[in-house]
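Repro:
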Amino acid sequence: MKQFKLSLLSAAIVAMSANAADYSNQTIIVEGSSMRPGAFGVAPESLALKDTAALLKRIPGANVNRNGPLTGIASYRGQFGSRINAVVDGMSWKEVGPNSMDPPLSHIPAALTDTLTVYRGIAPVSSGIETIGGSMSAESRKSKFTSGKDFEFHGLASLGYSEADNGLTSAVLGTYANDSHRFHASVSQEKGNDYEFDGSKSVDPSQYDRDAYTVGYGTKFGAHELGFNYSNNDTGHTGSASLPMDIIWVRGGIFSADYSVQLGDDRSFEASYYYQDMRHLMNNFTLRSNGVGGNKERQNVTLVDGGGLSLVYNMPLAGGRLSLGLEGDKSKHDGFITSPTVAAFGVDNFNGAEKNRYSTFAEWKGDVAEGLELETGVRYTQVDMDSDSVNHHMATAGANPFRVLRDAFNNSDLSQTDHNWDFDVILRQTISNELTAEVGFARKTRSASYQERYLWTPLEATGGLADNRVYIGDVNLDSETAYQFELGLEYAAGGLYVAPRAFYHRVNDYIQGEEITGTVANTVRGMATGGASTTVLQFTNVDAELYGMDVEWGYDLVGDFRLDGTVSYVRGRRIDGGGDNLYRIAPLNTRAQLTYEQNTWSVATEVEAYSAQNDVASYNSELKTGGYALLHIRGDMQPVAGVNIGVGVENILDKNYADHTSAINRAAGNSDVAVGDRIPGQGRNVYITASYEW
């Protein structure tokens, strides 16, 4: 049986498919782990998954903030959204939805995911810009050069069905390559209905519909390599019951080009460029009845134009490896809210809101003594942000509060510049053949998002917070600055592997909402709601801390049995008075899986358990959640070479539960979930997948 494709300092995490090893180029990789290769892995196309973000729940310390079936926001050690540097195929995808309806990891179907790499603990400065909450990178399946002049045709075809949402997934990838040229093309579709829970109840709307395709070409000539790729996404009617609107469509694509050259003497140069252009329509009346009526139907058209460039030079230095980089990206966001029943209604949600980042870094990694490795780096980033003037249909003459709020925003200094410095120092000591220790310290920064800075009128366009509260931005927000400390051990002997990590993050100027009263914003909110729900939250700088521990482990039992698992705990709270908790922190959780594996078939059972979360954020009235445990069983077989059939039952006991990192229901109408209740998790789900690789 094939081994997993893992580097020496990588590890794949808990095997969620008994056939993980047969798809050696589809793995979860955790950088910073020295576990022996081939121990863990996961084959995404063998699971009932819609988006790559779902794989994060298999990684120690990671989780997913789920706002919809295709809206999985990456979370790591209590931080999420724009605090996570989530890169897709080397590109920093920008969300076209102001409520993160299309987060970066949602753009690759799970069946076409090649690798998902998560930097465990302190992310190196070379891994990206603004890595205050961690760094992760997803790579899609593409063509690869062969070793001969004759062209070879390879590919993958996969199908999947899931009972809980009557969902169908399909994907086809074809590659044609030799040692000098490579071509690839892929198409995929995910489509399903509202999912069921607790017997025959359903969450409405939670349907999904997405088509995507990719084409690409690459060539090698001498020491040079050049590649081009274009990916297009067409998402149709997709529910997001925890947000004020649903996806009607998301359309657009991203073009990328990359170049590399080997310069001799172990030196190399890499360059990459991408351009993104996407459009998005959402509304509150097509997929949900919502009882809006009364001319309260709303729709929002949003746009994003962005791009980025990266130049990196690698060279040997002082017995190690030095990387020097110049990187940058730009994005411009627009959003205009209208009403199909009120022709005069119009709100400039965002108008030309820009966030442009220009960054340079230097990083060195090498041995400084026998068994002692040092990794250290520094990064400087200049962040320039700006916005055009905004308007509101009710900003009429006189002392109208809408006009007062609009004019105050338009007359403020909308052009803002931050100068952010990051650095890290990580030491890894090999104590024995079985034991390695790591200690690290870092300073990481993040500038405000365009929503946090330029949300000028009270709305819920908050980057996917999904807390049913209205916010307003602050043009003058300071950058977040985190001081991070990490301590870890890795032990591997015989059939046992265990790697605990403890961490502490002190975050100065952490950005979150705070209630404001007696302001024009509250007056505007009151007028918009007829006097109800007048309390507005404003994005504000506070001081906070996050600390905790996560563990990955595995043990080879007698015969062909193996146990694998993870444990994760994080605590987040304010430390500048009041002691409030941070929002949307996953409680203590664990996963354990027992696998029995033969050459052509295998079966695995998994227990997934979460404790109650009582440490909730009072500033936005976050709800507590109870603990729960779920049981899953999965199996697969390979009847002939290249063919894989997977079957499984998730939540086999049909447990009624609510994941704390999900949100509350906003959609009235046909759903069996009351408005204001936390959205429940999926009930018992029987699924089957089939794939053929050639």
